[in-house]
Amino acid sequence: MSEPSESVSKSVVPRHLGLILDGNRRWARENGVPIAEGHRQGFLNTKKLGRSLFDQGIEYVSAYVFSTENWQRSADEVKQLMKLFMWVAKHEAKELHKDGIRLRVIGSRLRLGKSLVKALHEAEELTKDNTRGTLLLCLDYGGQQEVVDAIKELAANGVNPADITSELISEHLYAPDVPPVDLIIRTSGEQRLSNFMLWRAAYSELMFTKSYWPDFSETELRGMLTEYSTRKRRFGA
Protein backbone atom coordinates (compact mmCIF):
# COMPACT_ATOMS: atom_id res chain seq x y z
CA MET A 1 0.00 0.00 0.00
CA SER A 2 1.17 3.52 -0.77
CA GLU A 3 2.52 5.63 2.05
CA PRO A 4 -0.05 8.18 3.25
CA SER A 5 0.54 11.70 2.06
CA GLU A 6 0.01 14.78 4.18
CA SER A 7 -3.28 15.37 2.42
CA VAL A 8 -5.29 13.78 -0.35
CA SER A 9 -6.40 15.94 -3.23
CA LYS A 10 -10.13 16.61 -3.16
CA SER A 11 -10.25 15.89 -6.90
CA VAL A 12 -9.44 12.20 -6.32
CA VAL A 13 -11.19 11.34 -3.05
CA PRO A 14 -14.29 9.15 -3.28
CA ARG A 15 -17.53 11.03 -3.29
CA HIS A 16 -19.18 8.21 -1.35
CA LEU A 17 -17.22 6.00 1.05
CA GLY A 18 -18.71 2.82 2.49
CA LEU A 19 -17.44 1.39 5.77
CA ILE A 20 -18.08 -2.18 6.94
CA LEU A 21 -17.33 -1.72 10.62
CA ASP A 22 -16.14 -5.19 11.52
CA GLY A 23 -14.30 -6.38 14.64
CA ASN A 24 -16.02 -4.50 17.48
CA ARG A 25 -16.79 -7.71 19.36
CA ARG A 26 -13.34 -9.20 18.92
CA TRP A 27 -11.81 -5.89 20.01
CA ALA A 28 -13.93 -6.00 23.17
CA ARG A 29 -12.95 -9.57 24.00
CA GLU A 30 -9.26 -8.94 23.49
CA ASN A 31 -9.40 -5.80 25.63
CA GLY A 32 -11.39 -7.44 28.41
CA VAL A 33 -14.43 -5.17 28.20
CA PRO A 34 -18.13 -5.87 27.55
CA ILE A 35 -19.26 -6.33 23.95
CA ALA A 36 -21.42 -3.22 24.29
CA GLU A 37 -18.30 -1.17 25.01
CA GLY A 38 -16.71 -2.48 21.83
CA HIS A 39 -19.70 -1.26 19.83
CA ARG A 40 -19.62 2.11 21.62
CA GLN A 41 -15.93 2.57 20.84
CA GLY A 42 -16.68 1.61 17.27
CA PHE A 43 -19.22 4.39 16.94
CA LEU A 44 -16.90 6.93 18.55
CA ASN A 45 -14.26 6.01 15.98
CA THR A 46 -16.83 6.43 13.21
CA LYS A 47 -17.64 9.92 14.44
CA LYS A 48 -13.98 10.88 14.81
CA LEU A 49 -12.96 9.63 11.37
CA GLY A 50 -16.08 11.11 9.80
CA ARG A 51 -14.96 14.62 10.64
CA SER A 52 -11.63 14.05 8.88
CA LEU A 53 -13.27 12.43 5.86
CA PHE A 54 -15.68 15.30 5.31
CA ASP A 55 -12.86 17.82 5.64
CA GLN A 56 -11.07 16.03 2.79
CA GLY A 57 -14.01 16.48 0.43
CA ILE A 58 -15.88 13.21 0.82
CA GLU A 59 -19.59 13.96 0.69
CA TYR A 60 -21.16 10.71 1.93
CA VAL A 61 -19.95 8.15 4.46
CA SER A 62 -22.11 5.05 4.87
CA ALA A 63 -21.46 2.98 7.99
CA TYR A 64 -22.80 -0.58 8.18
CA VAL A 65 -23.85 -0.63 11.83
CA PHE A 66 -26.57 -3.31 11.98
CA SER A 67 -27.51 -5.71 9.22
CA THR A 68 -30.76 -7.60 8.73
CA GLU A 69 -28.79 -10.72 9.69
CA ASN A 70 -27.63 -9.20 12.99
CA TRP A 71 -31.02 -9.94 14.54
CA GLN A 72 -29.71 -13.52 14.86
CA ARG A 73 -27.24 -12.40 17.56
CA SER A 74 -27.98 -12.91 21.23
CA ALA A 75 -30.97 -11.05 22.66
CA ASP A 76 -28.70 -9.23 25.10
CA GLU A 77 -26.31 -7.98 22.41
CA VAL A 78 -29.21 -6.81 20.23
CA LYS A 79 -30.71 -5.02 23.25
CA GLN A 80 -27.40 -3.28 23.96
CA LEU A 81 -27.05 -2.24 20.33
CA MET A 82 -30.55 -0.76 20.29
CA LYS A 83 -29.62 1.22 23.42
CA LEU A 84 -26.51 2.48 21.63
CA PHE A 85 -28.55 3.58 18.62
CA MET A 86 -30.96 5.40 20.91
CA TRP A 87 -28.00 7.13 22.58
CA VAL A 88 -26.67 8.13 19.18
CA ALA A 89 -30.04 9.51 18.14
CA LYS A 90 -30.63 11.48 21.32
CA HIS A 91 -27.13 12.68 22.19
CA GLU A 92 -24.54 12.12 19.49
CA ALA A 93 -26.80 13.62 16.83
CA LYS A 94 -26.53 16.94 18.66
CA GLU A 95 -22.73 16.77 18.41
CA LEU A 96 -22.94 15.91 14.73
CA HIS A 97 -25.28 18.86 14.28
CA LYS A 98 -22.77 21.21 15.92
CA ASP A 99 -20.15 19.88 13.52
CA GLY A 100 -22.39 20.60 10.52
CA ILE A 101 -22.81 16.91 9.66
CA ARG A 102 -26.09 15.52 8.38
CA LEU A 103 -27.24 12.21 9.87
CA ARG A 104 -29.39 9.85 7.83
CA VAL A 105 -30.54 6.31 8.57
CA ILE A 106 -31.27 3.77 5.84
CA GLY A 107 -32.83 0.36 6.35
CA SER A 108 -36.26 -1.15 6.84
CA ARG A 109 -36.97 0.19 10.41
CA LEU A 110 -39.81 -2.36 10.73
CA ARG A 111 -38.30 -4.12 13.77
CA LEU A 112 -36.64 -1.18 15.50
CA GLY A 113 -39.47 -0.19 17.82
CA LYS A 114 -41.53 2.99 17.79
CA SER A 115 -39.43 4.94 20.30
CA LEU A 116 -36.18 4.33 18.41
CA VAL A 117 -37.75 5.09 15.04
CA LYS A 118 -39.09 8.36 16.50
CA ALA A 119 -35.70 9.31 17.95
CA LEU A 120 -33.91 8.54 14.69
CA HIS A 121 -36.42 10.61 12.75
CA GLU A 122 -35.92 13.55 15.11
CA ALA A 123 -32.15 13.27 14.71
CA GLU A 124 -32.52 13.30 10.94
CA GLU A 125 -34.77 16.33 11.11
CA LEU A 126 -32.34 18.15 13.41
CA THR A 127 -29.43 17.71 11.01
CA LYS A 128 -31.20 17.73 7.64
CA ASP A 129 -29.93 21.16 6.54
CA ASN A 130 -26.26 20.54 7.41
CA THR A 131 -23.85 20.65 4.50
CA ARG A 132 -20.42 19.58 5.80
CA GLY A 133 -21.14 15.97 4.84
CA THR A 134 -23.68 13.18 5.26
CA LEU A 135 -23.18 10.26 7.64
CA LEU A 136 -25.49 7.40 6.75
CA LEU A 137 -26.12 4.72 9.35
CA CYS A 138 -27.13 1.49 7.64
CA LEU A 139 -29.36 0.13 10.41
CA ASP A 140 -31.52 -3.00 9.99
CA TYR A 141 -30.10 -2.84 6.51
CA GLY A 142 -29.59 -5.53 3.88
CA GLY A 143 -28.54 -4.90 0.31
CA GLN A 144 -30.76 -7.66 -1.08
CA GLN A 145 -33.76 -6.46 0.93
CA GLU A 146 -33.24 -2.91 -0.34
CA VAL A 147 -33.52 -4.12 -3.94
CA VAL A 148 -36.53 -6.31 -3.08
CA ASP A 149 -38.28 -3.36 -1.43
CA ALA A 150 -37.57 -1.15 -4.45
CA ILE A 151 -39.10 -3.70 -6.81
CA LYS A 152 -42.10 -4.18 -4.50
CA GLU A 153 -42.65 -0.43 -4.58
CA LEU A 154 -42.54 -0.43 -8.37
CA ALA A 155 -45.04 -3.29 -8.48
CA ALA A 156 -47.34 -1.53 -6.00
CA ASN A 157 -47.23 1.53 -8.25
CA GLY A 158 -48.37 -0.58 -11.19
CA VAL A 159 -45.17 -0.26 -13.22
CA ASN A 160 -45.12 -2.58 -16.23
CA PRO A 161 -42.26 -5.10 -15.84
CA ALA A 162 -41.14 -4.24 -19.38
CA ASP A 163 -40.59 -0.64 -18.25
CA ILE A 164 -38.36 -1.49 -15.29
CA THR A 165 -34.79 -0.30 -15.81
CA SER A 166 -31.74 -0.07 -13.58
CA GLU A 167 -32.29 3.69 -13.41
CA LEU A 168 -35.88 3.17 -12.23
CA ILE A 169 -34.79 0.74 -9.52
CA SER A 170 -32.15 3.24 -8.37
CA GLU A 171 -34.89 5.83 -7.98
CA HIS A 172 -36.73 3.56 -5.53
CA LEU A 173 -33.88 2.58 -3.22
CA TYR A 174 -34.05 3.63 0.45
CA ALA A 175 -32.23 6.92 -0.22
CA PRO A 176 -32.41 7.42 -4.00
CA ASP A 177 -30.46 10.68 -3.93
CA VAL A 178 -27.38 8.97 -2.44
CA PRO A 179 -24.84 8.18 -5.20
CA PRO A 180 -23.08 4.85 -5.85
CA VAL A 181 -20.32 3.86 -3.44
CA ASP A 182 -16.88 4.66 -4.86
CA LEU A 183 -14.80 2.91 -2.21
CA ILE A 184 -15.68 0.27 0.38
CA ILE A 185 -13.36 -0.41 3.32
CA ARG A 186 -13.82 -3.46 5.53
CA THR A 187 -11.91 -3.97 8.75
CA SER A 188 -10.96 -7.06 10.84
CA GLY A 189 -9.48 -9.17 8.03
CA GLU A 190 -12.72 -10.38 6.45
CA GLN A 191 -12.90 -9.94 2.68
CA ARG A 192 -16.54 -9.94 1.62
CA LEU A 193 -19.41 -7.48 1.26
CA SER A 194 -21.83 -9.30 3.58
CA ASN A 195 -24.92 -7.87 1.89
CA PHE A 196 -23.72 -4.25 2.10
CA MET A 197 -24.83 -1.73 -0.53
CA LEU A 198 -25.10 -4.41 -3.23
CA TRP A 199 -26.76 -2.15 -5.79
CA ARG A 200 -24.57 0.88 -5.20
CA ALA A 201 -21.42 -1.28 -4.94
CA ALA A 202 -21.54 -2.49 -8.54
CA TYR A 203 -18.30 -0.67 -9.42
CA SER A 204 -16.90 0.08 -5.99
CA GLU A 205 -13.21 -0.17 -5.28
CA LEU A 206 -12.59 -2.56 -2.37
CA MET A 207 -9.97 -2.40 0.38
CA PHE A 208 -9.44 -4.57 3.44
CA THR A 209 -7.43 -4.37 6.63
CA LYS A 210 -6.78 -6.71 9.56
CA SER A 211 -7.33 -3.86 12.05
CA TYR A 212 -10.45 -4.09 14.19
CA TRP A 213 -12.75 -1.15 13.61
CA PRO A 214 -12.16 0.60 16.99
CA ASP A 215 -8.40 0.48 16.24
CA PHE A 216 -8.68 1.64 12.63
CA SER A 217 -6.66 4.86 12.56
CA GLU A 218 -6.71 8.03 10.56
CA THR A 219 -3.18 7.20 9.36
CA GLU A 220 -4.33 3.88 7.90
CA LEU A 221 -7.37 5.56 6.42
CA ARG A 222 -5.24 8.20 4.71
CA GLY A 223 -3.07 5.45 3.26
CA MET A 224 -6.11 3.82 1.71
CA LEU A 225 -7.37 7.12 0.31
CA THR A 226 -3.95 7.72 -1.20
CA GLU A 227 -4.06 4.28 -2.82
CA TYR A 228 -7.58 4.98 -4.08
CA SER A 229 -6.30 8.13 -5.79
CA THR A 230 -3.89 5.99 -7.84
CA ARG A 231 -6.45 3.51 -9.11
CA LYS A 232 -7.84 3.70 -12.66
CA ARG A 233 -11.56 3.20 -12.53
CA ARG A 234 -12.89 1.85 -15.83
CA PHE A 235 -16.47 0.96 -14.84
CA GLY A 236 -16.40 -2.18 -16.98
CA ALA A 237 -15.00 -0.46 -20.07
Structure description:
By secondary structure, the protein is α/β, with parallel strands linked by helices. The chain has a single domain (16-142, 180-229), classed as Undecaprenyl pyrophosphate synthetase, CATH 3.40.1180. 41% of the residues lie in helices and 15% in strands. It contains 7 helices and 6 strands; from the N terminus they run E-H-H-E-H-E-H-E-H-H-E-E-H. The protein has a 6-stranded parallel beta sheet, with helices on both faces. Helix 4 links the parallel strand 3 and strand 4 (133-141). Helix 2 (35-55) runs parallel beside helix 3 (75-98). The two termini are 25 Å apart.
Strand-helix topology:
Blueprint: E1 16-20, H1 24-30, H2 35-55, E2 60-67, H3 75-98, E3 101-106, H4 114-127, E4 133-141, H5 143-156, H6 166-170, E5 183-186, E6 205-208, H7 218-230
Parallel strand pairs: 1-2, 1-5, 2-4, 3-4, 5-6
What CATH architecture label applies?
A: 3-Layer(aba) Sandwich
Domain module count: 1
Shape: globular
* Approximate strand percentage: 15-25%
Q: List the helices and strands in order.
A: EHHEHEHEHHEEH
User: What structural class is derived from the secondary structure elements?
Assistant: alpha/beta
The count of DSSP E runs of length 2 or more, i.e. the number of strands, is 6
Task: Tell me briefly what this model is.
The chain has 237 residues and is an alpha/beta fold.
Features:
single chain, 237 residues, alpha/beta, Undecaprenyl pyrophosphate synthetase, six-stranded parallel sheet, 6 strands, globular, disordered N terminus
